[in-house]
Each structure stands twice: as structure tokens, then as C-alpha cells.
Write a structure and sequence with these properties.
The chain is mainly β. It has a single domain, classed as TolB, C-terminal domain (Neuraminidase), CATH 2.120.10. Helix content is 3%, strand content 45%. The strands form 7 sheets. It has a 5-stranded mixed beta sheet. Strands 2-27-26-25 form a 4-stranded antiparallel beta sheet, with no helix packed on it. A 4-stranded antiparallel beta sheet has the order 3-4-5-6, with no helix packed on it.
Length: 339
């Protein structure tokens, strides 16, 4: 539901306590091979691991930004984690263990990506309009970018890197006012120049390059659509158009990822599910958690194992923050880490 995301953003300054939960595992996990949807187009995701419980002060938890590091471990952020508790976690998916990587007293981190340029972990801080970076192990926090872009401070949600390490941000400017002022911002890999590539978007959320790095898939939360933005060799971009209208009902388009075949995995905020489309907009499948899984309200994001098809979906709600797993339709690549 939209209220879950809106509430999470409203309480960022008053975050409550967080406790890492034990491994709530389900032995019925899929194998590591490309899957085909069932006759009704459904792919069933299975509970893999619980990472968080609801924060005491805010009454919620919200997992986001799953991304695989070079060590094969999965990094996950918790948007509403309070100071002193894990805001960035690393999951060993083989051992089903989780440990704290980073925390601070101020940030509200909504996404994570490793840069192909310097290998550092980049985080978007929605609360302060900043992009920060960490050493792969979680230390050496640096502010990569802060300040205004074309007269307005960003509300950065998700991030994507091109091959050169330049960073592309889905700027959700206007979300709290209900205005279509969202942008796509390109920041060069040294953090110097920032350029608006597109504006007038409806709460820009997910962002991912297509398989050939020719353009960006961008999800717009409050219009339930995926737009496609061709991107020039440097900062130029022309010809943005609506590519997919997401039939989400009460759910809304959240983060987005792309597999090796170019398929789009569109997370649904307000429903613990993902819609999967091919690059021409045909709906291929719906990834669902089992109906008996109560207390889960949103599937915000996904990461597909590099070179494999095991996918890990972040799912949150009153029951806590979980990883659910399923077999993707194709192998994971860099674009398969959902911002």
C-alpha cells in the first residue's frame, strides 16, 4: 500500500529500535535453474529468512536495496532502522546468517549498489537528499554527493550505474506533496557534475539499465507505470515514453530489476508480489508469496544471483522484514540488483 511507503518516509526522523531476528527459514526453496510460470502465470516465492522485526517506535520495518557483492553475499538496507542498529546488513545466503555492516545516527537509506568504478557500496539517503559511499566492508563513510540539482535538493530513491561508473538516480521529488516533479539525475563518477535527464515524473522510484545499457527503465510510483528513457553516450537523453502500465490495483510500482534476457521485474508496493514483463511490455509472470503468509504488505525489490537464477526478494510488513526466494526466468547480471 502507498500508506506503508508514505508512513515510512514520514517517520524517518523518529526511528525506533530494531532487533535482528533469527533465521525463519522454509525448507521448500526452489532450485537454481530458470523457471517457467505455472498455467495461471504464477511463480511461487518461498520464505527464506527473516531479517528484521517491526521497530518499536515506528511500528514498522521496510527492507530495500538487495545487491550482491563480489564475495557472493547479499547486502540489504532497512529504510527505517534507528541509530545504532543495522541500517545496512550483509546476508550469507549459503549459511543463512546475517550481520550488521553499517549504522549511523541520521541516514534513511533506500537503496544500495556497488560501483564498477571504485568498488565501493553506494547508498541513497532519502531523508537528507544525499548519496553516500562505504568501503565494501562497511567502513569509511564518505559523502559522494549533496546539495541542490537545478535549484532543488533531491529525494533520492534508487540508483543505477553505467559501465563507466557514472551514477543515475531516481529522484522522487514531489512525493510528499503529491506533485509530478520527479526526476532522473545523472552524477558523474567523481561526484562533480549533476545533470537532470528527465523531469515531470510521478514519484520516480525504480531505475535500471536495459541489458545493452542503451536506456533506463524507470518506475513511477503514483502513476503505476514504467517509462523507458534512452540515454546518450554521456549526459544527453531524448525520447522518454511510457513503456508499461502496471496493473497493480491498490499496489504501486516500486523498484525494478532486469535479468540477462532483458525481462523486467517490477516490485509491487502494497502487495507482496512482483510483476514480470518482457522488454516489449508483455506480462510474463507474477511472483507471489503463499497466501498463508500473513502480515506481509509489500515486495519492494529483488536481486538475482549473478550467473544463476536464484532470486531474493525483499518483503516487509507487520510480520517483519523477510527474504523470499524464487527461480527467475533468466540469469542474474549487474542490472539484476534492483537499485
Amino acid at each position: 500500500m502507498r500508506r506503508l511507503r508514505n508512513r515510512s518516509l514520514a517517520v524517518l526522523a523518529t526511528l525506533g529500535t530494531l532487533a535482528l531476528a533469527g533465521c525463519g527459514t522454509d525448507t521448500r526453496t526452489p532450485g537454481d535453474g530458470a523457471t517457467s510460470p505455472g498455467p495461471d502465470g504464477t511463480v511461487t516465492a518461498h520464505r527464506f529468512m527473516r531479517l528484521t522485526t517491526v521497530h518499536e517506535e515506528t511500528g514498522m520495518t521496510l527492507l530495500e536495496g538487495p545487491v550482491f557483492g563480489e564475495d557472493g553475499r547479499l547486502v540489504v538496507v532497512d529504510v527505517t532502522a534507528p541509530a545504532g542498529e543495522p541500517k545496512v546488513m550483509r546476508v550469507d545466503v549459503r549459511k543463512k546468517t546475517v550481520r550488521k555492516v553499517f549504522t549511523d545516527s541520521r541516514g534513511a537509506y533506500t537503496s544500495a549498489q556497488f560501483s564498477p568504478y571504485d568498488g565501493r557500496l553506494y547508498l541513497s539517503d532519502f531523508a537528507h537528499g544525499e548519496i553516500v559511499s562505504l568501503a565494501p566492508g562497511g567502513g569509511d563513510r564518505r559523502t559522494f554527493f549533496t546539495g541542490e540539482v537545478d535549484g532543488a535538493r533531491m529525494q533520492p530513491d534508487d540508483i543505477a550505474f553505467d559501465r563507466d561508473g557514472d551514477l543515475y538516480v531516481s529522484d522522487s521529488l514531489g512525493l510528499s506533496e503529491g506533485e509530478a516533479r520527479g526526476r532522473v539525475v545523472r552524477i558523474d563518477r567523481d561526484g562533480g557534475d549533476a545533470t537532470v535527464l528527465a523531469d515531470g515524473l510521478a514519484a520516480t522510484n525504480g531505475i535500471s539499465f536495459d541489458i545493452g545499457y542503451r536506456g533506463l527503465w524507470i518506475s513511477e510510483l503514483t502513476e503505476n507505470r514504467i517509462s523507458y528513457l534512452p540515454v546518450g553516450k554521456r549526459a544527453g537523453a531524448t525520447g522518454r515514453h511510457t513503456a508499461v502500465r502496471v496493473d497493480g490495483g491498490v499496489a504501486q510500482a516500486d523498484s525494478i530489476a532486469v535479468d540477462a534476457d532483458g525481462n523486467l521485474y517490477q516490485a509491487l508496493h502494497g502487495r507482496p508480489a512482483m510483476a514480470v514483463y518482457d522488454r516489449y511490455g508483455k506480462r510474463l509472470a507474477t511472483v507471489e508469496v503463499p497466501a498463508r503468509a500473513e502480515g506481509l504488505e509489500s515486495a519492494t525489490n529483488v536481486a538475482i544471483t549473478p550467473g544463476g537464477t536464484r532470486a531474493y526478494m525483499t518483503v516487509s510488513g507487520p510480520a517483519g522484514g523477510y527474504l523470499y526466494t524464487f527461480d527467475a526466468l533468466a540469469e542474474g547480471v549487474r542490472q539484476s540488483n534492483g537499485g
